[in-house]
Write a structure and sequence with these properties.
- The protein is of the alpha/beta class.
- 26% of the residues lie in helices and 28% in strands.
- Strands 1-7-6-2-5-4-3 form a seven-stranded mixed beta sheet.
- β6 and β7 form a beta hairpin.
- α1 crosses α2.
- The longest helix has 13 residues.
- It is globular, with a radius of gyration of 15 Å.
- It starts with 8 loop residues before the first strand and ends with a helix.
Amino acid sequence: MAQPPTHTTTQRTLALPDEAATAALARRLAPHLRRGDVVTLLGDLGAGKTAFARAVIRALSGEEVEVPSPTFTLVQTYDTGNATVWHFDLYRLSGPDEVTELGWEEAAGGIALVEWPERLGPLTPPDRLEVALRMAGTADARRAALTGYGTWAARLAAMELP
């Protein structure tokens, strides 16, 4: 009888005392991203998902590019030279059918940063980095739980993070 596939994961938890620490974590992660990567961003409203994505995009761009929240446009793209970054905000969507209409398949050739990834449903890739942000005490403090799924498990384990 065949065994079900094992799903490898690695998790790291970090304290982020302020928004600058959240941005620093994003900048530290950015050089590890490559074409085909998906980073899912979990957290309540105001947890810092967009701030994290903004810092990743700016680090990959190498400049202070304007990065508005895609809450109303649902997706924004950024040409960083090495790959196109797709920044999705799925908050207002009802499910995966609507995600497909936003260019989800095209995003597979770039780097996808996905806020509110719960809306992906079966489109959620087995190989991904999940960044869960939650408030931690003060107004600016956050706790980040990074979980590498599939091939991301070994990549996350090998990263030097604060």
